[in-house]
Each structure stands twice: as structure tokens, then as C-alpha cells.
Predict the structure.
Amino acid sequence: MTTFSDLGLNEILLRALSRENYHTPTPVQAQAIPALLQGRDLLGVAQTGTGKTAAFALPILHRLLADRRRAAPNTTRALILAPTRELATQIADSFRAYGQFFRPSVGVIVGGVSHRPQIDMLARGLDVLVATPGRLLDHIGSGRLKLAATEALVLDEADHMLDLGFIVPIRQIVAKLPKRRQTLLFSATMPREIAALADDMLHDPVKVSVTPAATTAERVAQHVYLVASNAKRDLLLELLGDREISRAIVFTRTKRGADRVAQHLESAGVGADAIHGNKSQSQRLRALDAFRKGRTRVLVATDIAARGIDVDGVSHVVNYELPEVAEAYVHRIGRTARAGAAGKAISLCDNGERPLLRAIEKLTRQTLECTDRRSPDARHDEGEPIRRAPAPHRNGAQHPRRDGQRPTAKRPGAPNGQRRRANGGARHKQAGRPQA
Ligand code: AMP
């Protein structure tokens, strides 16, 4: 098995990795690091949870160690662009952790906080700058940051940058960098615009692809509850009654929804905090810190706010509402089962969300196990026919129904109403029992 020292990393970094309890490189690290140490550009198809941050941070730190000159004022030797404040902060923390034995200067530039400390920080010059594109452009525009001497550029979560409308700002930033540089682009998915950006930015890149959407999805035990939308709150509380759920992220589609769910949980005595774009930076950091330290058991989040959250030991992800875009489901459930750990995802799906569920199943190429928690009346109100006796399939088996309502054999020990889909259970044994 490959070890970090096999990859050729500087001894000072190996010491930090061992301190951080990293013993074996993850696949993206094993593939990317040797090529990056040779100075190659890289196109990485990898999502959060694969260890991609160390895959780009370690070779950059190795480069800084090999040539320890100080960065000139108002310059940075390496620039990392990230879509959100949280992700930028976490990337910077990773650089500091891996660089703990030589202490490179690492700075963060994000919006929503005052300019002055950032201006002072840039004036000193940085080894590594992690930034979101908008605020960075302000500093470039006012001459506080010059990129002509930057040696390495990383674009992290490029597809998310695209979703947030950052492609033009990114192109403006890239135009300020020297042609001779090392460039890395990471993206969980490769939409056309990102492929075009990669084409323009990267020179003969090494291509590393780990965790296609389906792979993460298969590592996480997943279960769906079919439930009327007005019964979701009670079901969520019931599920959280299970102490096996030690640390959960609950996803909602809207900021208001996140606040409402968090308030509902709090009023029922479940420690919960909401995190979304309307919260100030300090509120978000406080909520994350409380969650990370186990003071709050549940973090209720919107997709954008949660994208960069890197908290180990999330036992469960609950999709209180299914995401509009199926890819977001994969990102959400990737918050659990990080770095190879086991994790569980529970989705509450009302009738209107059924098309979203089908899109998720198509993307992840799996059929999710369902428990039907709707009352017979609700099923009828939702336009379904009163259940008839199942017609036998031509080969004698029952028709597998995609909506999971046909009564198939009840599994031993399964709670009332829990049924296994004829075509889903066998393939997804690891989905296990629902967490009710
Ligand atoms: P990332 O995909 O960069 O967000 O990393 C996901 C998580 O895996 C983070 O909590 C890292 O600290 C952790 N991690 C990354 N690489 C390793 C490794 N080689 N061994 C153990 N944990 C790791």
C-alpha cells in the first residue's frame, strides 16, 4: 500500500500528517500528489470527502519548503479560489495544519467582513492566500494584491463556482496571473462551462477522477420515508429520538425553512442551530463550532451554506426536503461517511417531491429503500388509487413499483409500514434498517 513518504513529500509535512493521524493517502492523494510534485497541471474530478484538500495543499506546501523565500508585500505565492466563506476558511485551516512545523503565512479573503484587516494582511505578503472571487477582485482592483509573481493557482469546487455565477470573476482573476504557473482545477461534476474553463486554464493536465457520483452514494446507507409534507416535522422529531443519531445535518431547501426547522427542534428540546446565507459570518462560525464540538446535535442547513462544511463524525444526514438538483443530493449525503467512515442518510419525501426522488435514483443509479408513512387517507388524497390486490408478474413475482407502495414481503423486525422494494433491497443491502 502507498504511504505518504512513498509519494516523495518533504519530511516536515510527513511529521504533520502523522500528527493529524493521516496514515494512508486517499486515492485522490495517491494519484495527484506525485504528478503535482513534478509540476504538472491537474484536472481533478473529486468531491468533498475524498481528501482533495490535502491532495492540492501538500504539494503546494512542499514547493514552499523547497524554496523558502519570503513573499513580497502585496503578493501571494499560491492562490486558492473557493466558492464559499466556510470552504475558504476550512482550506486555510488545512494548510495551517499540514504546515504546522514550518508555519507558512496563510491568509483568507472573503466577503462580509471588514476590508481593513485584509488590507493589512495583504501588505505583509503571503505564502498561501485562500479567497472567494468577489472580494479578491476588489483587492486586485485597488492594487492591494498583485498576482504577477503567483506560482500556483487552485480552483476548488469549480462547478459550485459556476452555480454561484463566479465564472467571469474567475476569468478576470486568472488573466492577472503569470502564464508560467502551476494550475489545478477540482470539480465534483464537469458541466460544459467548466470543461471549457479547464481547457483555457490548464496546460497538458494530469486527469484524476475519483468518486463518480454513484460511488459516494453507495457508501452511505440510505433510506427514504414517504410522508405527507405536514407530517415531516413530527417524523423528524421521531427519528431524532434515536440516540444512534449522534450528530446530524438536516437539509432544507430554503433559509426560512432552515430557521423554522431549527426552531421547532429547539422548542422540542433537541439542540439545533440553523446555518444559511442570511446569517452573519460570526453566527455561522459559532454554529459550526458548537456543532463540531458536540454542543449542538443538529445543524439545519441549506445546500449553499453546507457545501464546504467539513465536520468529522456526522452520523446522519437528513434530507428534510429533497434538493431541486439531484447532484446536490450526492453532495449532501457526502457530509456523512467522510474519509471512509460509515454514514447514514434519511430522506423525507412528500408526494410533490416524487419526481426529485426519481431524478436522484437515476443519477446515483440505485433504487432507494422506502418506508411508507402516509396514512391511507393521505395516499388517497394525493391522487393514488385505493390499493388493489397485486397482479402477479408474468414470472410469478410481483411488479416492482417505483413508488414503493405495493405491499411486498414485510421484513422481519421491520417497523409497521416498512416495506422493501422488490428491485432495490438486494442490491443495496448496506442500506440496512431505517433509522426510525
Ligand atoms: P476533503 O475531501 O479534503 O474535504 O477531506 C475530507 C476529510 O478527510 C477531512 O476531514 C480530512 O481531514 C480527512 N482526510 C483527508 N485525507 C486524509 C487521509 N489521508 N487520512 C485520513 N483523513 C484524511
In short: The first strand starts at residue 42 and ends at 45. Residues 385-436 have pLDDT under 50 and may be disordered. The longest helix spans residues 52-66. The radius of gyration is 24 Å.
